[in-house]
């Protein structure tokens, strides 16, 4: 009877040890599987020129300065790039106004009322912009920005270079095809727009 009782205790102890080990292994396997699924969901593969490139998803807060700067640059490129073509002007301005509120719309309306765009077309003038830098203050919301750029106004006989400094704020909105960064420019103002130089065209 003693041997049977001892053997039973050994078997019971061994069985409990096996069950505990199996439970630990199962929990570890589930945990590692969950980690693998999460890591897989954070990866995106982009096909470019026949090659699969791996990209990683990240939280928006990690990319706010980068996306905000690109949003401001995109708006300025559309709003200040003009050619003597009514369709080009309307297309660019429409794209720009999706990225800003009525503060930019008021500037556009004032310029239109003063026949600025008509003068661009009738004078065969082109206007380009070269953005030097964009500073974003993400310490407070809405995010304040300042853009430093240079305008080139190309006429038939000359090229006028002007400095351009603008300011405004960025607030979050829903992303869309017209506004992929999910920001909206508010309180847009031009703080400096003076002539720098004029060079003759040959």
Overall description:
This protein has 202 residues and is of the alpha+beta class. The protein has five helices and seven strands. It has helices at residues 2-41, 60-80, 86-97, 102-113, 116-122, and strands at residues 43-48, 51-56, 126-137, 143-154, 158-172, 183-192, 195-200. α2 (60-80) runs antiparallel to α3.
- CATH fold call of the largest domain: Nuclear Transport Factor 2, Chain: A
Give the total of domains. 2
| Run of helices and strands | HEEHHHHEEEEE
CATH class of the largest domain: Alpha Beta
Give the % helix: 40-55%
Classified in CATH, the superfamily of the largest domain is VirB8 protein
Based on the structure given, which CATH architecture of the largest domain is correct?
Answer: Roll
What portion of residues belong to β-strands?
Answer: 25-35%
Structural class: alpha+beta
- Give the end-to-end Cα distance, rounded to a whole number of Å: 116 Å
Work out the oligomeric state of the chains in this entry: single chain
Radius of gyration: 31 Å
Low-confidence stretches: none
Shape: rod-shaped
Determine the number of helices (DSSP H or I, runs of at least 4 residues).
5
The largest pleated sheet is described as:
5 strands, antiparallel
Task: Round the mean pLDDT to the nearest integer and report it.
Answer: 87
Number of distinct beta strands: 7
């Amino acid at each position: 009877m003693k041997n049977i009782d001892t053997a039973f205790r050994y078997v019971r102890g061994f069985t409990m040890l096996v069950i505990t080990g199996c439970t630990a292994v199962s929990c570890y396997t589930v945990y590692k599987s969950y980690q693998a699924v999460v890591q897989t969901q954070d990866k995106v593969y982009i096909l470019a020129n026949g090659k699969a490139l791996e990209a990683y998803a990240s939280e928006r807060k990690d990319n706010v300065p980068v996306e905000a700067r690109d949003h401001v640059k995109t708006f300025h490129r559309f709003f200040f790039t003009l050619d003597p073509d009514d369709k080009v002007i309307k297309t660019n301005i429409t794209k720009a106004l999706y990225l800003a509120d009525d503060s930019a719309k008021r500037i556009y309306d004032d310029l239109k009322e003063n026949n600025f765009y008509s003068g661009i077309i009738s004078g065969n003038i082109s206007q380009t912009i070269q953005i030097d830098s964009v500073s974003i203050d993400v310490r407070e919301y809405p995010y304040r920005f300042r853009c430093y750029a240079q305008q080139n106004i190309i006429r038939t006989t000359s090229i006028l270079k002007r400095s351009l400094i603008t300011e405004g704020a960025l607030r979050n909105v829903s992303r869309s095809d017209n506004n992929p960064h999910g920001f909206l420019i508010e309180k847009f103002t031009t703080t400096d727009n003076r002539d720098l130089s004029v060079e003759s065209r040959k």
